[in-house]
User: Fold these one by one.
Assistant:
Number 1:
Amino acid sequence: MHVRWVEGGEKFSARWRSESGAPPPAEIVVVDDGLTADEAHRLANADKAMLWRGDFQNARQLIKAVTRRADRSGRRHAPKSPVEAFYLHRQRQARRARLLGKLLVPMETGYVVPLRRAPDVREACLAAYGPDSEPTVVSLREMLGVIGAHEWRINGVEVPGLDGRIHPHYGVFAPVRGEYVELVARAPLPSRELAFDIGTGVLAAVLAARGVESVVATDLDPRALDCARDNLDRLGFGDRVRLERTDVFPTGRAPLVVCNPPWLPAKPTSPIEHAVYDPGNRMLKAFLDRLGKHLAPGGEGWLVLSDLAEHLGLRSRDELLGAFDAAGLSIVDRLDTRPCHPRASDPDDPLHAARGVEVTSLWRLAVG
């Protein structure tokens, strides 16, 4: 897909790039440092995209100012229930993303940004997008995400339960919530022979670090698999973990099957949100319904799941326990922990009432 605009009386076009799947803007106006935050907010609300030709650092300041205006205008009324608070929060997030996505920056072939004081984004864009062959236009919001993700990839994220660092790739969810990793790091292993990691991420490395001789890790997302391979090789576990691109389970049975599915039953709006939102509990139900067919006799399935959805009114505890029963699964034990990330104690977070009482659990499940 391409975008088109008129600049200096001439017609131009470039490839449109959007990892979130946003459609190309129908109307583009060319702007520069003379654009005020109020005018930018007005143009974005009028569904007009703005192609930036000014100073790159000024554009960064402008998008912060537009963010503040978008947040203020999005606060209409107080929610009446936790579930209403959740959906209002999602609506505000979507509206903010739509507005901020209207500020665009050009990139020449080779990911060169032809703006004053623009950073060198070539390495970051190549890692995120792969090779390019033509000029492109991308939202400044996405470009800043690409830059930030590349910094994370270079520096890595310390994972206490792993005693090592994970280097997340762009578009792959980073293990910033270490409490769930620590649950897997301390739960009693039923076997060290073989384990399946469903929806691979950091947990395959944790299992290998605990001495599991062979791990089969699955995912459908090529980026997640590439990221896992990179990190497993960095950590020295590459020879003990086999990655398989498949939906949920690999073939065969294992004495231990681990799954950390997306925790909230809602629709994702971007590729990376698939790690957080699970429409209709699809992955959760698939894991539970098919777990018995992939557990070796006497084996355990470990389900790592937050109860945030319960506090938000998106799923009840009775529904979860009923899903265990329907799948013919019994509870061997449950390990609990509380989150320690900043939002859990932030009273200004729109979901604070639910986050403040959230508990993350590792459910040890068995057949029968």
Number 2:
Amino acid sequence: MYHVFDHMGIAVRSIDEALPFYINVLNGVLEDRYTSEAPGVEVHVAVVRTADNLIELLEPTNKNSPIARFIKQKGKGVHHIAYRVDDLDKAIEDAKEKGVRFLEDTLRTNARGRKLIYMNPASTEGTLVELCSYPEN
């Protein structure tokens, strides 16, 4: 099974303040912007494509959202990296067989149809890693 780099999630206090850097300096293009108020998510998202990467800017919608807690604990910056797989259920099963633990409550389909789950950072040497698949997969 392949694991292809899909995107990087970056926690920001304000998407409006962060966007100029990604658009004007990195020559990115704003591809999408949406809000997810799902419990345990609660985030504004701006999707920016640079020449060869996809970046999700993540702004908390309230002080109790996971992104707000992340910023409070670690500050702004890289929140997670995501890898696209062809079959998310199989990828989870394969990883579990290798001893990887998951944050089971993060398994969901986002507002744009991407199915995803986060690995427990204890299994990834401290990095929050998302596995995801898309409806066309």
